[in-house]
Amino acid sequence: MKHIKTFFSSVAQVMFQGNVSCGILFIVGIFWGAYSAGTPAVAWGALVGTAVSILTGYLLGYPHNEGEQGLWGFNGVLVGCALMTFLGSTPLGWAALVVCSAMTTWVRTALNRLGEPLGVSSYTFPFVMSTWIFLAAARMLGGIDVVALSHPMLPASFVHLTHSAAPSFIDFVEWTLRGVSQVFLIDSWITGVLFLAGLLIASPLSALWAVIGSAGGAALALLFGAPTEAIAHGMYGFSPTLTAIALGAIFLRPSLRTTIWALVGIVGTFFVQASMNVLLAPVGLPSLTAPFCIATWLFILPTFKNQLKN
Amino acid sequence: MKHIKTFFSSVAQVMFQGNVSCGILFIVGIFWGAYSAGTPAVAWGALVGTAVSILTGYLLGYPHNEGEQGLWGFNGVLVGCALMTFLGSTPLGWAALVVCSAMTTWVRTALNRLGEPLGVSSYTFPFVMSTWIFLAAARMLGGIDVVALSHPMLPASFVHLTHSAAPSFIDFVEWTLRGVSQVFLIDSWITGVLFLAGLLIASPLSALWAVIGSAGGAALALLFGAPTEAIAHGMYGFSPTLTAIALGAIFLRPSLRTTIWALVGIVGTFFVQASMNVLLAPVGLPSLTAPFCIATWLFILPTFKNQLKN
Amino acid sequence: MKHIKTFFSSVAQVMFQGNVSCGILFIVGIFWGAYSAGTPAVAWGALVGTAVSILTGYLLGYPHNEGEQGLWGFNGVLVGCALMTFLGSTPLGWAALVVCSAMTTWVRTALNRLGEPLGVSSYTFPFVMSTWIFLAAARMLGGIDVVALSHPMLPASFVHLTHSAAPSFIDFVEWTLRGVSQVFLIDSWITGVLFLAGLLIASPLSALWAVIGSAGGAALALLFGAPTEAIAHGMYGFSPTLTAIALGAIFLRPSLRTTIWALVGIVGTFFVQASMNVLLAPVGLPSLTAPFCIATWLFILPTFKNQLKN
Fold this sequence. Notes:
3 copies of one chain form a homotrimer.
Chain A: H1 2-12, H2 20-36, H3 40-59, H4 64-68, H5 74-86, H6 91-115, H7 125-140, H8 169-181, H9 189-202, H10 204-223, H11 228-232, H12 238-250, H13 256-279, H14 290-300
Helix pairs in contact in A: 1-2, 2-3, 2-9, 3-5, 3-6, 5-6, 5-7, 6-7, 8-9, 8-10, 9-10, 10-12, 10-13, 12-13, 12-14, 13-14
């Protein structure tokens, strides 16, 4: 029973909630999205990644109360989704998934030791760092199939001059929901609805900021002329979603000042996102949630202590 | 009146001077260089960038005495020069400039928190980091025009085997002055003279080291066979100029030991500069003043406390 | 006499031994490997690099006891081997070698100041960082010949699908020995035997872990289908060799737990190695011992204090 609680709390912690019902709805959303896209391995990867990273915390003898809040497992969920999205579901692919999810548990401890004196945490960066290592390695290793990584290329190729028509309101809502679902690398507006429902149960303020973040990212991407295809699939929404929840509902005391700060944080995350899409092009790696981590560090570090919660 | 003082001190702080007359001469130099090159937006960008980054310090409620020494604004001046050098002067280009200069003020606070326990500051790295983000993003965003970034390419293409004739003394002086002017991304020997005049008013020792740094960078680049075109436009001079002032006149107590150390620092900066020109080639970004920041960290961190000023 | 002791201790410290006889055998191994490969400059580079980096420690007035344990010089040996492996043996090439080895001494002090509060050291990263700077710079500088760096390319080109036959036992032993010799960038199984003999004199446990690390790296590379050519030349062995000695024999108290941890560390190092081969491809730089440094940080930082030696 306790372990089931730990499991679902871990899934919910991806969006900073230690709430079991929220975690259950997230898992339902992941299964819906993965099965409807014909990639069931993504959903099973999420389960395995979560379980392995939690188990690793127990094996390493880390303090249980941390793990039971879901803090061991949230990077593992994302590793599971990412590795089964980009790599083939082969025995060696699953072996990579197991090593990579386990690794996030101690990489998190390692990175948190760096951030501790500065009052920041590693957020989802253990997932980003470990996943980058395994995805890059997969290109070199014939035993692991790369099925969905974009082709490495020089960023010169993507100067976009066309300006596409503004989307309808319905389209924009759908893009915003896809942005929320892309937090777990799922491309489905229905999953977006399920994720928001989970957030609503756990923290209505978080749900509100998730919508503002995803919609804000998409709106900025439209305004500044990012490729429409990417916006429509939520690629400019997922990192701002996380930044918005982090700054608007989790780490800062809500006030007019911090509300404005969270809105500026969405703008910052958008530009970091666009830049990382360019910087990672030559090695053909996805940015994952790195733009959220980088932007949130840049917006939390310079904040006055009296604006930080606890 | 106080605001005018803050404004010009900020411009002067790019070369570590909190001196109003020096800042005025720097602005004159920027205007001369920008107008004579037919890119007036660079000069106006410098003014807007400075003003925005100072205003941001007030809005965030940071301690005023810091800002009035010019420490909020010096990254903003450089953002203004850089964004209007590399990007088109369009409404969205100016919007990017405003967000990017504002960002330097809190990124500086964030990065200084990292450096504080080690006794180092972020120097111009908030400018470098923010500008890299916006320049890279601009390649992805159709709404922002890229007008002068070099084409992304694999560094294989630049193995240079030719050895060009040594420049005349007059040429070498001109290259040295251009190196000084390139600190603000201006390519004009007259601007170099104006910048040196400003330094001379504020700190003759700084002016001397600026000349040594720029000349040293150019001489090393000639000796080791860097592309002559780049040397002639001061591209190997600007980062060593800043390192030389930092190590020779600002952060270390002048002595025979620290004088030799500053000279070695120029050599170190030169190699970091050459390496970054290669490392950034695949993404087509300029090194900006990153070689100065990296070299200065590597030369300040291992210094004994009794060689550091205050 | 004292200086001779310092010299050979420095060479031995590359594999964490402050033992003169071990250092002598390492130098013999380097000379054998360099001369038998027809690249004698590599061996002489090792001598010069060591001497310069030790001399730099004295000139900078760093505490002598550190230097005499071999801690000033071990990065310099590696710089000497690396620069004379990849660059031409010309006057300017040797000038670069002198500056680069000297630099490792203070870069080590600088980086150790970052790691100190976290209880980690910079390991061979001063060598990695300084060498990357000079190798990248060499591509830009006509005065320094690049003779053996791999061509910069987009990593797309190396998706390997072939699965080669398993090596014979004798082959595998040879590959393992080459992995050990590649720690000093030497590609010779005889050198591998000499290095292991040196380790055996200084610390039999270290020798054992060196074999486990190199064999483990090669075995994982075979299992996951890395290019056979690279495995046969020890390219997947040298970083795991260092990680294995570091975690198995040097930094952690030997126990069942830490033994398993060192084995997992070999797995981690292998994936970091494969990923860096991809990430560095666009700039055509070798990973050097960076995979060892990164993996060892990630495995030491999250370790409980009571598992760390002293």
